[in-house]
Amino acid sequence: MIEMGLFGKSKPKTRIMFACVENSGRSQMAEAFFRKYAPKEYEAVSGGTEPKGYVNPLAIQAMNEVGIDMSKHEAKAITEEMIRTSKKAVNMGCMDKGMCPTSMVPKMIEWNIEDPKDKPIEKVREIRDQIEQKVKEFVSELE
């Protein structure tokens, strides 16, 4: 997305990438929270090294509970363009070290957040709240 700058010239938004292995839970929630809390000159993207093709239904449910609709989100692969155009990249945490995004993207910020995959909704809510807190802290450091 591009916003208009001084004298009508377009100014690209600063892109932040959130990455994990499957792009079905943590990175999706981080992307959604970042869109909610970040200044308007920023945008978020997320991707995975082995995307599942769908977003975890419990992650969607947990986010709905806090007023964020992720029902239209899709799991997607990290692309060369995402890496090239992102000012900062955040790795949500790796359970599978062989497919860890840090092996693809240098200078990635590590959050080490537990994967909500196969967890009950109560645990997914805890992870959601942890991600929200980390995103708020991250956004406050941008300003």
UniProtKB/TrEMBL annotation:
EC id: 1.20.4.1
This protein's UniProt keywords: Arsenical resistance, Oxidoreductase
SMART domains: LMWPc
InterPro entries named in the record: Ptyr_pPase, Ptyr_pPase_sf
Domain Phosphotyrosine protein phosphatase I, chain residue ranges per copy: 14-141
Gene3D superfamilies assigned: 3.40.50.2300
Gene Ontology molecular function: any one: arsenate reductase (glutaredoxin) activity
Coiled coil: none
Name this protein carries in UniProt: Arsenate reductase
Organism field: Nitrosopumilus piranensis
